[in-house]
Amino acid sequence: MNLPADLLAGLHAPNPRDRDAAAEQLGDLLHGSSLTQDETEAAVVCLLAVGINDPDDAVRESALNAIGNASERRDLPLHLVAGLAPRLHTMPAPLLEHALGILGATRDPDAHPMIEPYRHHPMAYVREAAAMALAELPDHNAPAATDHNL
User: What is the pLDDT of residues 36-48, one digit of tens each?
Assistant: First the structure.
C-alpha cells in the first residue's frame, strides 16, 4: 500500500499544525501518481471528514485543497464527496471556493443543484468558483449525442 498510515493518523493529531501538515503532505501525495484509485478514494474519505469537521479553518482548507489535488489526477465519483453539499452553506468563502471546485471536478450532472445556488453568493470569487464548477458539468439540457445528430 502506497498510502502512509502515519499521514492518515496525523489528520487526527491533537495539534492543528500537525493535522495541517498531514493534510498538506497527503495533498502532495495525491498530486502525484503513486496511489491507486482505491488508495486515492480512501485518502479522500479521510480528508473529507477533516475538511468538514475540523475546528481549525486552516486544517479544513488544507484538507479540501488535498482533495482538489486528488481530483486533478483521478476521477472522483460524486458520491465520494457529496458529503460537502449539506455543509456548503456553513463554510467560509475560501473553503466554499475549494468545495465548489471539488464538486464540479466530479463532472457529474447530479452536482448541479449542489453548486447552482452559489452563483448568487455575495463574494465575487465564490460566484466565479460556482460558475467554473458548473462549466465542468455536462450540460444537462443538451440532447444526448446520437448517430443521427452527430
Answer: 999 999 999 999 9
Nearest partner of 42 among 53, 54, 29, judged by Cα:
29
Residue 5: CB atoms within 10 A of its CB come to: 8
- Spatial contact of 130 and 89, defined as CB atoms under 8 Å apart: no
**CA atoms within 13 A of residue 68's CA, in its CB half-sphere:** 18
Q: Is 66 in contact with 26 (CB distance < 8 Å)? A: yes
Stated pTM of the model: 0.90
Nearest to 55 by CA among 8, 90, 28: 90
> Can you say whether residue 68 is alpha, beta or left, with left for phi > 0 and alpha for psi between -120 and 50 degrees?
alpha
